[in-house]
Specification:
Lambda Exonuclease, Chain A; binds iron/sulfur cluster; single chain; alpha/beta; about 20% strand; globular; disordered N terminus; about 220 residues
Length: about 220
């Protein structure tokens, strides 16, 4: 499975479209100590912790062509936000919603921008994210963790329990997938935030990814 966030197939998806928002940057390195983790950090960490180190500790930029792909993703993101998807929300049992929601948590040291926060019956809530991708029969781990982080942000900001998240695969006729957000997933996501802070603030040099195929098209392969 290709989970490289720095190749076109995954870059075309909406989460990568949100990789470098102005809001992200304002939380990033205004001083030497990082204050908040963003979903972009988590995507990079899950690709390879060492990638995160090269990019944000050593601050070695990726090649310019990668940015073009980022911009493409951002445009698609803007476009899809205006598309009416009420029938999908109805399918989920949504009673109310907020669109394009930017949330922060001082406690979790986390920020995130969620395509939609859905309010469900039984006082529950759920994140919904659009992926500009085809449904391939499985959900990437990066997307599961990303949705788990959104779930944590929603729980804290809206004081509602989150047990599920939803992904819409735009290129497969808006195929809808449900993710069950378990306590184990929440603990794993919190541990990832902790690890990211260790890399970025303590400058801990992480091990290389065990999946060597990821190195083949990694920007930093000549340095690593
Ligand atoms: S070359 Fe491989 S180990 Fe090194 S940063 Fe890239 S993906 Fe990670």
């Amino acid at each position: 499975m290709n989970e490289n966030p720095f190749t076109a197939s995954v870059f075309a998806e909406s989460d990568v479209g949100k990789r470098r928002t102005e809001k992200d940057d304002s939380y990033r390195h205004s001083s030497e100590t990082k204050i908040f983790v963003t979903p972009s950090d988590v995507i990079e960490y899950l690709f390879c912790p060492r990638f995160l180190y090269f990019m944000h500790v050593l601050k070695i930029e990726q090649h310019e062509h990668k940015r073009i792909l980022v911009n493409k993703g951002r445009d698609i993101h803007a476009l899809k936000m205006v598309t009416n998807k009420d029938y999908l929300r109805k399918k989920i049992g949504c009673v109310d919603k907020e669109i394009d929601v930017y949330l922060t948590s001082e406690k979790l040291k986390l920020v995130g921008r969620i395509d939609e926060v859905l309010f469900l019956e039984d006082d529950l809530a759920a994140p919904l994210d659009y992926k500009y991708a085809f449904w391939e029969g499985n959900i990437y781990k990066t997307h599961k963790i990303q949705q788990t982080l959104y779930a944590l942000l929603i729980e804290e900001n809206f004081r509602k329990k989150v047990q599920k998240a939803y992904l819409v695969y735009v290129r497969s006729k808006n195929h809808l997938e449900e993710i069950v957000i378990s306590q184990i997933m929440k603990s794993e996501a919190l541990k990832i935030i902790e690890d990211i802070f260790d890399i970025l603030n303590v400058n801990y040099f992480p091990a290389a990814t065990k999946y060597q195929n990821k190195c083949l098209d990694c920007t930093y392969r000549n340095l690593c």
